[in-house]
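Co-fold these.
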Amino acid sequence: MGKLFRRYWQPVLHTDELPEDGCPPVRVKILSERLIAVRTPEGEYGLMDEFCAHRGVSMFFGRVENGGIRCPYHGWKYNADGQAIEVPSELNNSEFCKNVKLRSYPLVKVGDLLWAYLGEPKMQPPLPTWEFATVPSGQTFTSKRLQESNWLQALEGGIDSSHVTWLHGGGPTGAGLEADPLFAGAKGNQYNKGDVKPSFEVVENEGGLLIGARRNAEEDHYYWRVTPWVLPNFTLVPPRGDHPVHGHFWVPIDDENCWAWSFDYHPTRDLKEAEVAAMKAGAGVHSKNIPGTYRPEANKDNDYLINRDKQKTGELFSGVEGIAIQDSSLQESMGPTVDRTKERLVATDAGIIKARQKLRRAVEALRDHGTEPMGNVPEHQNIRSVAIVLPADQPFVEGIGDGFEARAGVRQTTV
Amino acid sequence: MTTPISVSACARAATAEEAAYRIDYPLAYARSTRVVAFDETAAKTVRSVSDGPWGKAQFYTTSDSGEELITLDGERRPMAMEIEHSDSVIMVATNSIVSNAAAAVGVACRERSIMTAGLLLLDAGALGGDALSALRPYARILLVPADEEDLFELLKGIRA
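Predicted complex below.
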């Protein structure tokens, strides 16, 4: 699976984590590698092995200088590509340097994020084109939080629509969807409430799957909420009314932790101040983090601040505040990597079963035949989630048509 | 209400080390599953998958009316009695689906609150609206398109 992930660009940092030329370096752990990200005084981004090739000290303590970063222990200096360019202790400095290079990876800015590609250079795919990262800056907002479980547990929550009615439910005065400023007021919410037992259709798509949840709407019509999953770790949430579209990237830090990147964007308008304020406060799919960190304030050390009174009254079905933490609390509670041999899946888990199958097939095809996996090219990334009302006998893919395509200046298909 | 934090709080309970203390016991087959093919192509897939390591799963084709289920050995049995004690019915079909049969089985499942899933095998071409219309009202979850491996994985996943 690690080799599969190395065929994709993955988000690794907010641009504001390396806010200016020559700023301090930042530690990055991804795909079980410890790396250091730098932004040189000349504005070059670099991502390389965290540890100096000399004695293995952490370059986090390094000094960023013109042309790269210098180890504070004995002064070895590396450029943004990890190539040693000065080794002060060596007489024949330049010749020795040629043979010293830290493993490094491309780090590029697309939108408000820095993306890394950790695979073979000759197999590097096109730069990411996800709409949330390519709309104008004022139209998008991205947060991240540490999730202390493996990435697949988190992803499976993203494509498991059947948990929504339960876990994210709240009573009439509670923190249900209508109480969240990023969801409230949409007609789709009425359909959600009117039919609490959705049926599902899982449809093959070029980049992964489309998972449609349908509920009864007006006579002979269904209200569809369609969640795309693009291999290996990208999901979108269906939109509501004129609210922004949201979604996630689940990026493996190691086998037992991942970054949950959560974004909101609107294809045709700037985000409103009130919307951004709500996102920063942890509403919608975002979380309220411990200041200066990406760890949520409600975390496993404090039992996610579960409120048993609100749970008992039904104000919050789970007793935990916020959609993001409602998800992470339960996904982390399964343990860092749940024992899937102990699962008792049901038929409505077919989306998860199908996603696992596609991931396994992609891993095997890459391993056995070198087949390039789906999802790392623009044709698979120019995708949107959709919420729509359609006639009952219509295939939803047909009814939605080009509503799945991310098209600049065209509003999302939403109810 | 404040929440007391005990030593067994999530921080400890959710570690890999603590996971080793979880009670280990074999899972019983949870599903008494019926797998029904609604046309000849679907029947080939169902027949192929039926050789798997299943517990209580049983495999059938149907009469045109759906009033009878036909075992893979050719024995005809009343549909209503066959599904009576099942807890999930997997409906497998292609564009050649016999709608009446699907409706009969679907209605019977609905009346008995039996979980249903539908798999539309579409090797022969694009999805036809008729096939979708035949299964959609009765399948709580529908896989489009599906293949033999999907059926195998679904049965394995639900411990059929």
